[in-house]
Amino acid sequence: MDQPPASSDRPVLPLQYAHPRTAADEQSNAEAAIMAGAALAGYRRYFRHTRDAVRFYGEFQSRRFARGTVDQICKGCGAPTANVARIDWRFVIPMRTMEFGMSTEGNRAFLQTHHSLCDECFRRTALRVQRFRRRRAGAIALGVIGVILLIQSGRMPSPIGSWCAVLSLGLVVLTMLFVKLILRPPPLPPALQHVVAGTFENISRIP
Ligand SMILES: [Zn+2]
Asked: How far is the CA of 64 from the centre of ligand 1 (A)?
């Protein structure tokens, strides 16, 4: 997976807090809200812009689950282990919560978290991830076929065209259901599924 934040050559501007004079308070309030599991709405108010809240979230969670913070207890089975896994997450803010006229650039953050995971649990997780990707690809293919059929059905003589339209709509609905079921929760051990409010991208073993 790509890791855009580090490779970005854009200057990183300082975060703008809602009340710059009490920035330290705003920061600790935002941290407390995130630790308590608040959604964006819960810590957005401590920042002037949504993009600052998103960036803060990414940076704070990356620090919180940095490589040096792992506790050497496997998050899959609870056994002691020195092995560490890194998870890549994508955090995307829906467009409707963005400020008017802002570019889409600030609405996503990429973050990485680190966790203790023994060999066996990593192997099992990697298998689940493989299956997850295959099913997701299958669901997307089904949706694409549905959309193509829907477009083609308009050119077919009735009643074949009507049946084709019904079939394709069915395929599209099925795809949406599949995606909803397949993408949530991510294919991780339960203890790791919700560590951050992001979309699971990848898991890798790190030395
Ligand atoms: Zn384990």
From this structure: 21
